[in-house]
Amino acid sequence: MTQEHHLLETRTTLLNEISLLGFKELNNRSEPNKWSIAQVCHHLAITEKLFARAIEYGLKQPPTNHLKQKNIQVLLDRNIKVEAPEIVKPALEPYELVQVTELLNDSRTYLLAVLDRVEDKSILYEKSAKHPIFGELSLNQWIDLIYLHDQRHIEQIKEIKYFFGIQ
Question: How many Cβ atoms from other residues are within 10 Å of residue 32's Cβ?
Fold first, then answer.
């Protein structure tokens, strides 16, 4: 499957998970220090925009020699806890579903606009940007990280829904 397919499939799954949730269901937190579903979605939108900006930055850099592919699949292991950097932490205020959906749509539109400007997709394997956890990553792997990160948090949303008895 192509990256575009993975991005679309994962975003569709995410939107399906939240599409029928009311205000209370979106904003309930299982514990004071845990995120609500709305906050998880806000985090995903913020992160996607930052990743798109990292890709934009990387595109302006010279190609990197001998760029190694990293094992970014480890992101799917929810047993490995990662504290979100301050820059991608969601706001504390509650959200309506329409606001959450707009945030996610805006970040995806921005990402796709960045990717649409790349005429020769092979350059995504040759150029890189530094990731705070994984280090130097090819821009291609930055794209993979977006849908893997979404998948990780879809599982978190399912756990929150289960905790509150939401089907």
Answer: 5
- Structural contact between residues 29 and 166, judged by C-beta atoms closer than 8 angstroms: no
| Cα–Cα distance, 29 to 147 (Å, whole number) | 24
Angle value at C-alpha 38, between 35 and 42, nearest 5 degrees: 90
Strand partners, 131: 135
pLDDT of residue 18: 98
Whether the pLDDT of residue 152 is over 90: the answer is yes
CB 7 within 8 A of CB 148: no
Burial degree of 13 (CB within 10 A; 0-12, 13-18, 19+): middle
Torsion on CA atoms 21, 147, 12, 122, rounded to nearest 10 = 160
The Cα 92–Cα 112 span in angstroms is: 28
Q: What's residue 167's pLDDT?
A: 83
